[in-house]
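hiii so um. not sure if this is the right channel but i have a protein structure encoded as tokens and i wanna go backwards to a sequence. like what aa goes where. can anyone help
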């Protein structure tokens, strides 16, 4: 068994230990012998704007950890106890890579703190940064609101990355039915832990392995449910990485194809007002599968029942929380893939974009660090209609592809309604608005996003899937020094990320202009991180 107690998404240590105890009890009762160890866990809520670059590379670290421990100790099977952003995909990658019987127990969402009819939760704090920077709230007022955001154990209340990946895990067939939406504090979660322990012993006896479950149909089902529910854009990073470990190629265009076929049936925080607890009460993932039953492809699961059988048994208990296909919140699913002269591909969560910003044209405002953008917000140097551009935030350029929740929520908190943001970095599942990420080629590898300058006109057309800059004729040129060498002298772990096996789509062989093992070739491309010159 693998787990960690270092995350705010798993806030109460006793809650975790109960899960571990129950899984071990289930293993023993089924005739097995349990062992346990822990894996690293980065809490993005803490790492945000402190040191976010190691977060995504920790996914690979977790997969490697499980591979090392499982093979070195000749284990017959394993249960991954998880709940946060990188742990769940890291464990699924390990399961696919090892192909030993495995089962994932996700810890469950937290319940929102409802005060005077208003839902409060921890992610609200990021929007307060913008409100304080814009002078709409004092620091003292923000501090006074912090107790309202305390919700107790579980992953953050909305369909952010942690809960999205829990849903993906259940639809892939790698966790017990209803595991994704059962609240962390629900007594049923304790029962799920015990049942997971018993079931892993049965999986070993049956010799049912992850690659028997992780079929191409399973991945397509997971993407479809993700699109229907409006999940995090980080699935575009995680699902292909898991597929790669299972020997299945998942192209970014598949997300867009399925999204255009699949209506958006749920309106969950941050795109709407429902929380994961509402989804659970409405029937959970089986109810969503039931709505999509004509689109679902059959595939095995760890439950001894197929995904089609689970879909048939699903029941929608609230038709406003999980709508029917003909009364969907939106005609298309959560994610859109944009293309144009800025990007071979770029990702946006279109269900979190206001109708008036589905198409937009405006002047670029280019920043090379989050803090510079925050200072511009504070100085009121951002105007409605601007398109903020944050290049050199990708897997190689940052390096590590950090999340951009702080700048996106700061813009939102400051009251901007017609400001778009484009980056070759990624976004938190909590990001809303016209925020376009995952631009590839990334700037560090010579992508056009690195050539954009202040005043260039950016054109965004989400319905037609285009992203362009008008009349970009200049070549990439070296940029001024923006980061002291002292910050990058020790070759930290996130610099290894672009060289690892499960990569961002911009590192696929057909797209990679300059392979990561030849870093010196990147330096003519105008990377502002001059520390990289000396380092590499």
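sure thing!! here u go:
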């Amino acid at each position: 068994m693998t787990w960690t107690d270092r995350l705010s998404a798993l806030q109460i240590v006793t809650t975790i230990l109960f899960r571990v105890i129950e899984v071990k009890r289930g293993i023993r009762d089924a005739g097995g012998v349990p062992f346990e160890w822990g894996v690293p866990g980065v809490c993005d809520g803490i790492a945000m704007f402190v040191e976010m670059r190691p977060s995504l590379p920790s996914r690979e670290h977790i997969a490697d950890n499980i591979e090392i421990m499982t093979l070195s100790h000749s284990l017959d099977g394993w249960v991954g106890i998880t709940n946060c952003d990188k742990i769940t995909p890291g464990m699924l990658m390990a399961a696919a890579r090892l192909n030993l019987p495995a089962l994932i127990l996700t810890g469950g969402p937290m319940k929102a703190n409802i005060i005077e009819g208003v839902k409060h939760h921890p992610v609200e704090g990021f929007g307060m940064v913008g409100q304080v920077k814009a002078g709409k709230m004092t620091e003292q007022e923000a501090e006074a609101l912090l107790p309202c955001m305390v919700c107790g154990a579980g992953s953050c209340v909305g369909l952010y990355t942690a809960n999205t990946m829990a849903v993906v895990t259940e639809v892939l067939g790698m966790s017990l039915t209803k595991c994704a939406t059962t609240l962390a504090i629900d007594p049923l979660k304790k029962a799920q832990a015990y049942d997971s322990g018993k079931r892993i012993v049965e999986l070993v006896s049956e010799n049912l392995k992850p690659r028997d479950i992780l079929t191409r149909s399973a991945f397509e089902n997971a993407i479809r449910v993700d699109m229907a529910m409006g999940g995090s854009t980080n699935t575009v990073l995680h699902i292909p990485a898991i597929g790669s470990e299972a020997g299945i190629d998942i192209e970014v265009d598949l997300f867009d194809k399925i999204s255009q076929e699949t209506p958006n049936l749920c309106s969950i925080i941050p795109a709407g007002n429902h929380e994961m607890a509402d989804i659970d009460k409405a029937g959970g993932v089986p109810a969503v599968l039931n709505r999509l039953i004509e689109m679902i492809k059959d595939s095995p699961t760890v439950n001894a029942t197929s995904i089609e059988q689970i879909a048939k048994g699903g029941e929608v208990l609230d038709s406003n929380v999980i709508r029917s296909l003909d009364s969907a919140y939106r005609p298309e699913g959560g994610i859109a893939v944009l293309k144009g002269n800025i990007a071979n591909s770029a990702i946006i969560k279109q269900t979190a974009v206001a109708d008036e910003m589905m198409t937009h044209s405006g002047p670029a405002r280019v920043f090379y660090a989050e803090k510079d953008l925050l200072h511009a917000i504070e100085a009121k140097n951002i105007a409605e209609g601007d398109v903020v551009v944050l290049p050199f935030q990708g897997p190689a350029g940052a390096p590590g592809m950090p999340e951009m929740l702080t700048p996106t929520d700061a813009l939102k908190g400051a009251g901007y309604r017609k400001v778009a943001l484009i980056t070759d970095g990624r976004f938190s599942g909590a990001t809303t608005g016209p925020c376009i990420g995952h631009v590839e080629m990334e700037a560090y590898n010579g992508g056009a996003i690195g050539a954009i300058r202040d005043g260039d006109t950016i054109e965004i057309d989400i319905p037609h899937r285009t992203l362009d800059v008008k009349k970009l004729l200049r070549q990439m040129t070296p940029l001024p020094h923006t980061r002291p060498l002292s910050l990058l002298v020790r070759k930290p772990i996130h610099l290894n990320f672009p060289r690892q096996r499960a990569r961002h789509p911009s590192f696929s062989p057909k797209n990679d202009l300059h392979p990561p093992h030849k870093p010196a070739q990147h330096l003519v491309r105008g990377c502002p991180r001059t520390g990289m010159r000396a380092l590499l």
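oh and The mean pLDDT is 84.
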